[in-house]
Design brief:
mainly alpha; elongated; 166 residues; 8 helices; 3 strands
Length: 166
């Protein structure tokens, strides 16, 4: 559980306490409105709030981070995590805590993509390697490594035009 005044201060550091708490109330209302009424995953009272994990509830960013940290994952696990990452976390938010988490999540995605594409290339799964390398180039930070993987896959597929385009 997190104290409401701490959350309000962390999320709206430039606002006075009254406005920050008002912003938090409004944000909680919007979150509850977006969630299924039967889902009791957000608990809040006048003092604190918490996120209650339940079966079937997944936070995509946490799934990406978890997958990136496990040494023994399958190619399918890597693919599932790669699909979850859709680019910059919380675009338009520039608070310090967001920047730190954004960098951490982007690094986790790049690690997943590097592992995935490397394994596909090692297994000579060229079409899949080309697809995932292109996905990496679109969503990731490590464009040189992604480009190199795409060129390798396109070359193995016999597509010189694909190599040039990469």
């Amino acid at each position: 559980a997190h104290r409401r005044e701490k959350l309000a201060g962390d999320l709206w550091p430039d606002a006075n306490e009254t406005n920050a708490r008002s912003n938090l109330r409004h944000a909680l209302w919007r979150i509850r409105d977006a969630l299924s009424p039967s889902a009791e995953i957000l608990r809040a009272d006048h003092i604190a709030m918490s996120f209650e994990r339940h079966q079937g509830v997944h936070v995509d960013a946490l799934d990406v981070l978890r997958t990136s940290q496990h040494a023994l994952v399958t190619v399918d696990d890597l693919m599932r995590a790669a699909v979850l990452y859709r680019g910059e976390m919380l675009p338009g938010f520039y608070d310090e805590w967001v920047g730190v988490e954004r960098v951490r999540l982007a690094a986790a995605f790049d690690s997943i993509m590097n592992r995935l594409v490397t394994r596909l290339i090692d297994e000579a799964r060229w079409t899949e390697a080309a697809h995932w390398a292109a996905h990496w180039m679109t969503h990731g930070e490590s464009t040189e490594a992604a480009c190199r993987a795409l060129m390798t896959a396109q070359h193995a597929l016999g597509s010189l035009d694909g190599v040039r385009a990469a």
